[in-house]
Amino acid sequence: MKSIPSVITVACLLSSTLLLTSCKTVPTQGEFAALSCGPKGNLLQQTDFLPADGQRPAWRVSQHASEPSFVTRIEDGVLSIEQKGDEPWFIFKQRIKDRSLSGATLRYSALTKGSIQTEPKFHGFEHVAGLFYRTRTLGRQQVNYSAEMPPNQGEWEWQEVATTFEVPGDMNWIEVGFVHKAHGILQAKNPSLVIVACPE
Fold first, then answer.
1. Measuring CA to CA, which residue among 18, 47, 14, 22 is closest to residue 163?
2. Which of 126, 158, 173, 197 is the most buried (most CB within 10 A)?
3. How far apart are CA 197 and CA 32, in angstroms?
4. Burial 21-30 (b: 16+ CB within 10 A, else e)
5. Distance between CA atoms of 13 and 103, rounded to whole angstroms?
6. Which of 94, 60, 103 is nearest to 191 (CA)?
7. Domains of the chain by start residue, with CATH
8. Residue range 59-93, pLDDT digits in tens
9. How far apart are CA 97 and CA 133, in angstroms?
């Protein structure tokens, strides 16, 4: 079992406006292969959350303010994030800067399992945990998605959670990962980010 130390980010990343995206029909495997824009297959690196020997870690963490309040553990390809302190949120994420993805529609998914308690409340954000993504344009505009799709509260066993979103045409970077804003433990495995539609 390995633990990853938290990298602290002072700015409150989740203060940006949260926007829901509408889901689109997901292509079949054959249709995936026919897409001509951008790279093929899973766009994420280190989908077991750990770097191979000699690799730099592809996953990073950030947390509200300065007091470490979440613990991460990785074992057999399963990421566990557990709330321990008083800070309101924690993000485990990977950044992608491939400009060929500009304008494409992506599907982000993972298997998740949770034991997420919403009481007692200890901050002003919604008490949820689950998938996270953020897009940023060259003009520094951002869109955040923060565990808005259930299951994101209470108890649930392993199941796939997925969302689709459109990459801005003037993409600077995108980030995908997992956010935890409640009491309890969130677990995740098999993260995937794939192109489902090319720019129109």
1. 22
2. 197
3. 9
4. eeeeeebeee
5. 23
6. 94
7. 2-197 (2.60.120.260)
8. 999 987 777 889 999 999 999 999 988 888 999 99
9. 14
